[in-house]
Amino acid sequence: MQNPYAMHLYEYAIVRYMPDAARGEFVNIGLLMMCKRRRWIRTEISLQTEKLQAMAPDSDAGAIDRQCDVFRQICSGKPADHPIASLPAEERFRWLTAVRSASIVTSRPHPGKCDDLDSTFARLYSELVL
To answer: What confidence tens digit (pLDDT) does each residue in 41-69 have?
Structure first.
């Protein structure tokens, strides 16, 4: 039996590209995951151009990637990249998952428990994004 005190409580959200907020259609492009107790936050975003083109043929993959770069920079926690990046991991997670009307959005956060954050991240990314 696993030691319940060795388990990590985490939250995750799916990163999505939504070309038209009024239509509400989106394509999953990444994953954001955070563990407050460990002060751990991670994101992985990959633009799958064939999916983007199928959903929004006029989309500019370069512009979308630049928006994703800001998302990555905030997650990385390097204050020189973005002012929000200097906040603690849980505050950056809350800021990144806040409801907004933009082309890069997230699902609502979901909780989970695991003993290995990195392998759980990899499994969720594979299941939800790839």
So the answer is: 999 999 988 888 888 898 898 999 999 99
Q: With a cut of 60, say whether residue 1 has pLDDT above it.
A: no
Judge contact between 112 and 12, C-beta under 8 A.
yes
Residue 44's beta-bridge partner residues? Answer: 31
- What whole-number distance in Å separates Cα of residue 49 and Cα of residue 53? 6
φ, ψ of residue 67 to 5 degrees: the values are -65, -40
> Number of folded domains in the chain?
1
Buried b (16+ CB within 10 A) or exposed e, 85-107: bebebbebbeebbeeeeebbbbb
Instruction: Look up the domain containing 69 and give its range.
Output: 4-128
- Percent of the chain exceeding pLDDT 70 equals 96
